[in-house]
Amino acid sequence: MTARIAISYAECSARERLSHLVDPDSFHEWLPPAERVTSPHLAQLGVPSSFDDGVAIGRATLAGRRVFVAAQEGEFMGGGVGEVHGAKLVGLLRRALQDRPDAVLLLAESGGVRLHEANAGLIAVSEVMRALLDARAAGIAVIVLIGGRNGCFGGMGIVARCADRVVMSDMGRLAMSGPEVIEASHGVDEFDSRDRALVWRTTGGKHRWLTGDCDVLVEDEVAAFRDAAIDALDAATAVTLASLEAEHALLAGRLRLLPEAVDGDEAVALWTSLGIADAAHVPDLDVDAVRALRAA
Amino acid sequence: MSNIPAGLETLHYTFAGRIAAGTFPPVLVGVVGSGNLEVLLEPAAGSNCDIRIETSARGFGAIWEAVVRDFHQRHPLAGVRVSVNDMGATPAVVSLRLDQAVSELAP
User: Under an 8 A CB cutoff, do B31 and A49 touch?
Assistant: First the structure.
């Protein structure tokens, strides 16, 4: 018996993740680097472009089933969505309407809109949301995987929560405004972005699992993400008024859980309100133990 | 004060190659991140090794030339196009990435 060597999802590049996640040699890329479809904006600002504008898109098979995939590269501009980057995501989702794969997988790693591209990036992200919801409305499952070191923030955080299923590792982070943005706008007393434990308590995979914002919590291993993605292939759920109202009820309920003034740590207070005993020790628990907390 | 204008610098070098690279699917290695670079290797007509670099670090042409000349001495490839997007990688990192790209060509 050979021991499987665990490959860290967080430490892989976008293309490495793709090659490990889908069936071997099944990835066929659209607009590959050699086509040089690059940002029309970055060079004017003295910023080097990337040949794929920070995202690889294409088709592949997963456990023999047809999927479309996109993988964002967090090391290029923090995975920021620029005009071309966003258009590639939109094109992938629109093509899904036509070709009807079993699912679309988004390997998200992004700080949100690429600010260098301003309005073009903002419009791109909103188009991604629309295209994602169109794909879901057509019955195609959209699965978002989050486990990169840069997390999934801003517009891409919203995109993630529009999906049928969100898979996260405990290393992954998911939120709207990122830590530095909150600190810059509300001050270090409100949020200290250099406090890594605080950042993970409020945006990390364990927290998102406990609050129900992610559907599957996995170890930081490519194989675990692959298993979770295979498991999610039939996760398509209808986008209905009822599902939207259920989401609103969940959020309103969470808001009610937290008292106006919290004595001590707010994340721990929220977990306690969610019925988790010994909530202060959640950050010390391993993934298995945290998974068991929600099932209970 | 530097008299080097802001913006990207584009550098271009051509060497006469000796070992035909033949046909191969394009190879991409590296990422355009801080202190890093991406290298795209593609087959090209003719027997030259054509190297084109876009870098955010301006004014280092002499060092780039030394690094790519070294590279071509190690791998005197013919009929290839090497394209680089650089975000301030050090010469050692550049050399390693170039070698990594060539190593992906090996069958």
Answer: no
User: Is residue B86 within a helix (H) or strand (E), and if so which, with residue range?
Assistant: strand B80-86
pTM: predicted TM-score of the whole model, two decimal places: 0.95
> Where are chain A's structural domains?
14-174+214-235
Q: What is the pLDDT of residues B27-51, one digit of tens each?
A: 999 999 999 999 999 999 999 999 9
Measure B72 CA to nearest chain A CA, in Å. 22
CA distance B102 to chain A (A): 16
- Would you say A73 and A109 are in contact if contact means Cβ atoms under 8 Å apart? yes
Sheet holding B9-16, edge to edge: B9-16, B48-55, B80-86, B37-43, B27-30
Contact A76 B42 (CB under 8 A): no
Report helix, strand or coil for A251.
helix
pLDDT tens per residue, range A13-28: 999 999 999 999 999 9
Query: Residue B91 domain-assigned?
Result: yes
Domains contained in chain B, number: 1
Chain A residues in contact with B85 by the CB 8 A cut-off are 48-51
**Cα(B47)–Cα(B15) distance, integer angstroms:** 9
Whether B61 is in a domain gets the answer yes
Q: What are phi and psi of A237, to 5 degrees?
A: -125, 150
Residue A3 is predicted with a pLDDT of 61
* CATH code of the domain containing B60: 3.30.230
Torsion sign across C-alpha atoms A194, A197, A199, A202 = negative
Are the C-beta atoms of residues B48 and B79 closer than 8 Å to each other?
A: yes
Residue B7, min C-alpha distance to chain A (Å) = 4
CB contact under 8 A, A51 and B42: no
Q: Which residues of B touch A19 (CB under 8 A)?
A: none
Classify each residue of B46-72 as buried b or exposed e, where b means 16 or more C-beta atoms within 10 Å of its C-beta.
eebbbbebbbbeeebeeebeebbeebb
Domain spanning A14-174+214-235: which CATH class is it, in words?
A: alpha beta
Q: Is there a domain that residue B4 lies in?
A: no
Domain span at residue B16?
A: 9-103
| B32 within some domain | yes
